[in-house]
TrEMBL record:
Protein name: Alpha/beta hydrolase
Family as reported in the entry's similarity comment: Belongs to the AB hydrolase superfamily. AB hydrolase 2 family.
Keyword RNA-binding: no
Domain Phospholipase/carboxylesterase/thioesterase span(s) in chain numbering: 12-197
GO molecular function, one term: hydrolase activity
Domain of life the protein comes from: Bacteria
Length: 202
């Protein structure tokens, strides 16, 4: 298996791919995943890039300015990991739940590897590529939760990401919440409901 340090917790569908923010690790979002989708399978890798000792999923040149060559390479590597993990653990195409840096690489996964993810909840994501590839995301459900007081992600940037994913055919639900960059109770409530609606029988 591609060498990502990770945790896998077996469970039912939808399987969640948990992608942490800068400075997090594979354990960070497990409580969130368990709360958002009780009993769901959880796959939680640790980003391989270290920024002053803090794990991330790809390099950045400054806050909000990405090393896009590295981002492309890391996105493809993570896609390989997800594909191998699906075979190894017998899980369906996972729904990504990404926060901040993890949401950004989840957006990059959607754009570079359409069909890899069953959907994505992107919490405080921004446009990952200056010139995004054209992707066919027909029917892929995407939840985008942005914060109107987010000092890292300008409102216009998250709106542009929502527009791009929609233009690619994704079924986008975008909420702009009256919050900053951090995770809030509103994120939990909205993400939980959105996931529930993806598999209403649970
Ligand atoms: C990023 O680098 O992905 C964004 O600036 C968000 C962050 O990790 O702080």
């Amino acid at each position: 298996m591609s060498d990502f340090i990770h945790v896998f917790e077996p469970g039912h569908a939808p399987a969640l791919l948990l992608l942490h923010g800068t400075g997090g690790d594979e354990h960070d979002l497990l409580p969130l995943g368990r709360r958002l989708a009780p009993g769901a399978a959880l796959l939680s890798p640790r980003g391989k890039v270290l920024e002053q000792g803090m794990p991330r999923f790809f390099r950045r040149l400054a806050e909000g300015v990405f090393d896009e060559d590295d981002l492309r390479r890391r996105t493809d590597e993570l896609a390989g990991f997800v594909t191998e993990a699906r075979g190894r653990y017998g899980i369906p195409a996972p729904v990504a739940v990404g926060f901040s840096n993890g949401a950004n690489i989840a957006a990059a996964l959607l754009l570079r590897h359409p069909g890899l993810l069953g959907g994505a909840a992107l919490i405080r994501a921004m446009m990952p590529f200056a010139e995004p590839p054209v992707a066919d995301l027909s029917g892929t459900p995407v939840l985008l939760l942005s914060g109107s007081q987010d000092p890292i992600v300008p409102a216009a940037n998250s709106a542009a990401l929502a527009g791009l994913l929609q233009a690619d055919g994704a079924a986008v639900t975008h909420h702009e919440l009256p919050v900053g960059h951090g995770l809030s109770g509103m994120d939990m409530a909205l993400a939980g409901k959105w996931l529930q609606a993806l598999s209403p029988n649970r």
